[in-house]
UniProtKB/TrEMBL annotation:
InterPro entries: DUF212. Keywords: Coiled coil, Membrane, Transmembrane, Transmembrane helix. Residues 81-115 form a coiled coil. This is Divergent PAP2 family protein. The keyword Transmembrane applies. The chain crosses the membrane at residues 132-150. The keyword Membrane applies. Pfam families: DUF212.
Length: 153
């Protein structure tokens, strides 16, 4: 397999895995489902694209078309992760609260039915800017380590 792709995929997997102990530290509970959720610290999107760009920069140089493409691609992905996808997540929060708001406006008592509703839209879609930066730094680290480990091969 292409080493650059392998390192980017490993970086994504590690970033997703790191979210588990971070969530445990914040909440006090182990939640293994976090491994398969979007959003959170660090951004695996950012980690993947920045590890790819870092590996290419170290292997081929920053003046190559490969590095230019991976960098622009990475910037677009990171912008999307913290911009468009985050806004979609915030919109989803409002949609999920809409039923409750209508009931409150009609004067009905809140029975917390909607808190347990199974078909709520997924709210955690995007990233805060610090999560994107954290993912990018993590990706740069894994890209560098990946380069150093494969340099001898």
């Amino acid at each position: 397999m292409n080493r650059a792709i392998y390192i980017a995929l490993v970086s994504i997997g590690l970033a997703q895995f790191i979210k588990i102990p971070i969530k445990k530290f914040k909440t006090g509970f182990w939640d293994w489902k976090t491994m398969f959720e979007t959003g959170g610290m660090p951004s695996s999107h950012s980690a993947g694209v920045s590890s790819l760009a870092t590996y290419i920069a170290l292997r081929r140089g920053v003046s190559t078309i490969d590095f230019g493409l991976s960098s622009i691609f990475g910037l677009i992905v990171m912008y999307d992760a913290q911009g468009v996808r985050r806004q979609a997540g915030e919109l989803t929060l409002k949609v999920n609260e809409l039923d409750e708001e209508i009931e409150r406006m009609e004067g009905q008592k809140d029975h917390h039915y909607h808190d347990r509703k199974e078909d709520r839209l997924k709210e955690m879609l995007g990233h805060q800017p610090k999560e994107v930066v954290g993912g990018a730094l993590f990706g740069m680290l894994t890209g560098t380590i990946g380069y150093l480990l494969t340099k001898k091969l």
